[in-house]
Write a structure and sequence with these properties.
40% of the residues lie in helices and 16% in strands.
């Protein structure tokens, strides 16, 4: 059976008037009474066949509260099929099994789900646990309902063995990618099963609770269904951390006056808003168990106002900021607590203003400010969107190319669906899924080249390596580096929300990633792709042995004109000599002390001794090779000039460079910052011995206060 029985948390705690996700004033349904109604409905005479069965009266009432014009006939037909197919089946608590799909449907109805979702919720276990077939559901209720029922139907252990659970979740996630309502039903199903888990063996309770914690709760968070997420958190907390749960419950029970403290502040806030002529509803919102536990860990001893928050509901977006202004004017704001999730919504659809204010008596209250619409979405997330695939009043939702525009398939879900295709192994998929869902924040970076898509969504903490694979897929194997906000950056660079990223790819199709990239990859897609390439090219991870050999042929670097000689270990006689070139990060010139490293493609890059990139490669086990300067004096070098801004500065610097016989290969002038300007020149010198004189000439230009050789950050991923 799909659902189990009884509850580790009392009814009053799990679904009392102040419990998360429960509508105030609606009592918990008595499942035993519901079961009796189900049985009576099944034996009702012919006169009752076209009447809505009493057993789903509560569902109908909750549904009509959100959708007054809903057609309940399809719910009646779905209930009749569900009840007749589950007849004779009982839960371990002794209740008729039909009480489970009824409870799941009621949870979704109270969140505002539309009729199709409720129909599928009533039928969600029929194909899995009864003789009803998917074709029968499709014939009687249509393709949409059949798709939702199939999406939440578990795979058989007989066919999949130990892989049944991860493969079932893979199946559900793929189905969710096409219709997010699949996961809405699964979350409600898990919530009711968690409410009624008490008769299971403790080890099975713990196993189910851990999967709920690692997979279902993060999915509820990402889909924005806070009402389900918070109650699931409390139920998991009670099972996995019973001592902390009991301490938190005792703490809440011992602070019965906490509501009075917040109530007093709420009255003051209401008075301020009335005086400002702002129509608003001010509510005291008690924290759930896990929230109280987290606040206690963060703040230590709790005051009465810490046991809840104030919720201010208004009509329009502009009213939210008007309320914020009045609160910050009439109370003392705690600015460190201010967050604007209206201007910058969370990736899970959440919008609200967060602030905290201190009342005259010193009590501090956290305040949430949002519109009624925002509040509905904050509680129900994607469930509040109704049917995201229905045509809009202005016309069908869809892009010009006919693709459906789906607001419920955010970046995290698209990424998940992409990488799961590359993980046929169930254990790898299961491990990667938990790791991906453990990332609880998301950032957006922008493509510098203006390509499509212009934005890339990544988990917080992602690096340029992750951005490369998110944008280019397997072509990212040849990534050479990146520009972040216009500056060259190593692939290990951690990206931040709003960064602009340009990935630099090699033209050589045989290029591949370095094993060190795995140290910087945060997304499963990047790690899976890198691991796959390295497994297919085991020679790429090998470091050449450090044995001396006669010097290789001297090869000229055409870009710099500098001649370099490398002594490579164990080179075959007559083999094509390697290309030896100065590294762009430190641009060595004679007579700098230098060292070299073999890089992809067999060429050798030469670094100045002490270069950060060289030090990083040594730390990662790369063995240096001996390199020497040849007999050619010509060289190329990159210089950075720091100066105060003034007219004709660029002309004077260029004239000084030309006066020393150097040619300008390229030049970059950054925008002035605090009256200071940074110039970067790549110069070709006829003789490296003239470099000190050139730098002195540039320093002598009025306004220039420093000239130095370029030193870029280390690039361990290159």
């Amino acid at each position: 059976m799909s659902a189990e029985a009884t509850n580790p948390v009392s009814d009053a705690e799990a679904a009392g008037p102040d419990a998360p996700g429960r509508r105030r004033g609606r009592p918990r349904i008595d499942l035993r009474r519901l079961g009796r109604a189900a049985l009576l409905g099944a034996t009702a005479g012919p006169a009752a066949r076209h009447r809505l069965p009493d057993a789903i009266g509560h569902v109908a009432e909750a549904h009509r509260a959100h959708h007054p014009d809903a057609d309940l006939a399809v719910l009646r037909r779905a209930y009749v099929l569900a009840e007749s197919s589950h007849r004779g089946q009982f839960r371990k608590s002794g209740e008729p099994y039909i009480t489970h799909p009824l409870a799941v449907t009621l949870i979704l109805a109270e969140l505002g789900a539309e009729t199709t979702t409720l129909t599928a919720a009533l039928l969600h276990d029929t194909v899995e646990d009864t003789d009803v077939t998917l074709d029968q559901v499709r014939r009687e209720f249509g393709d949409e309902v059949a798709y939702l029922v199939d999406g939440v139907t578990k795979l058989e252990k007989v066919d999949y063995g130990a892989a049944a659970e991860p493969e079932t979740f893979r199946k559900m996630l793929v189905a969710t990618g096409n219709d997010v309502r699949v996961m809405s039903i699964k979350l409600a199903d898990r919530l009711h099963n968690m409410r009624t888990l008490g008769v299971m063996r403790p080890e099975k309770q713990a196993r189910i609770a851990k999967v709920t914690r690692d997979v279902l709760i993060p999915l509820a968070e990402r889909l924005g269904v806070q009402a389900l997420k918070t109650e699931l958190e409390d139920l998991v907390f009670a099972i996995l951390h019973p001592e902390e749960y009991e301490a938190t419950r005792a703490l809440i029970a011992g602070n019965t006056g906490a509501g009075d403290a917040l109530g007093a502040i709420a009255e003051q806030v209401s008075a301020v808003l009335r005086e400002a002529d702002i129509g608003a509803e001010v509510l005291v919102r008690p924290r759930h168990f896990v929230s109280v536990h987290r606040v206690r860990l963060k703040r230590g001893e709790l005051r009465g106002s810490d046991f809840g928050r104030l919720l201010v509901l208004v009509g329009e977006d502009a009213d939210c900021y008007a309320v914020l202004g009045e609160l910050h004017t009439c109370f003392t704001p705690v600015m460190s607590e201010f967050k604007d999730f209206i201007a910058a919504p969370k990736f899970n659809l959440y919008q609200s203003l967060h602030t905290a204010v201190a009342a005259p008596d010193g009590a501090v209250a956290e305040v949430l400010i949002r519109t009624h619409r925002m509040h509905k979405v904050a509680e129900a997330g994607v469930v509040a969107l109704g049917n995201p695939y229905a045509a809009s009043p202005d016309g069908p939702d869809g892009a010009e190319d006919g693709e459906r525009v789906d607001p419920t398939r955010p970046g995290w879900l698209s990424r998940l669906l992409d990488w799961q295709e590359s993980t046929p192994d169930p254990d790898t998929f299961w491990t990667s899924l938990r790791a991906d869902l453990a990332q609880d924040r998301e950032i957006t970076v922008y493509r510098a080249d203006g390509g499509v898509p212009g934005m890339i969504s990544l988990p917080a903490g992602a690096t340029c390596v992750d951005a490369a694979y998110a944008e280019h897929g397997e072509a990212a194997h040849g990534c050479l580096g990146a520009r972040v906000n216009g500056r060259l950056a190593p692939l290990s660079t951690v990206l931040h929300d709003g960064d602009t990223v340009q990935l630099l790819l090699a033209q050589d199709a045989a290029s591949g990633p370095s094993p060190q990239w795995l140290d910087h990859a945060r997304t499963p897609a990047a790690r899976i792709a890198i691991t796959g390439w390295l497994q297919a090219h085991p020679e790429a991870a090998k470091v050449p042995a450090a044995a001396p050999r006669p010097p290789a042929s001297v090869t000229a670097d055409r870009r710099s004109g500098t001649r370099l000689r490398a002594e490579l270990p164990d080179a075959a006689a007559g083999a094509t000599p390697p290309t030896v070139r100065p590294a762009g990060c430190c641009t060595p010139v004679p007579p700098d002390e230098i060292t070299g490293f073999v890089v992809r493609g067999g060429s050798v890059t030469v670094h100045r001794t002490g270069c950060a990139s060289a030090d990083t490669m040594r730390r990662h086990g790369r063995v240096p090779v001996t390199v020497h300067w040849g007999d050619t004096a010509e060289c190329r070098v990159t210089l950075v000039a720091e100066s105060f801004g003034r007219p004709r500065l660029l002309a004077d610097l260029t004239e000084a460079i030309a006066g020393e016989g150097a040619a300008v290969v390229s030049a970059t002038v950054e925008p002035p910052s605090e009256q200071r300007v940074r110039h970067t020149y790549t110069l070709q010198l006829p003789d490296a011995a003239g470099l000190p004189a050139l730098m002195r000439a540039m320093r002598d230009v009025p306004g220039v206060y420093d000239v130095s050789r370029a030193r870029h950050p280390a690039s361990p991923g290159l």
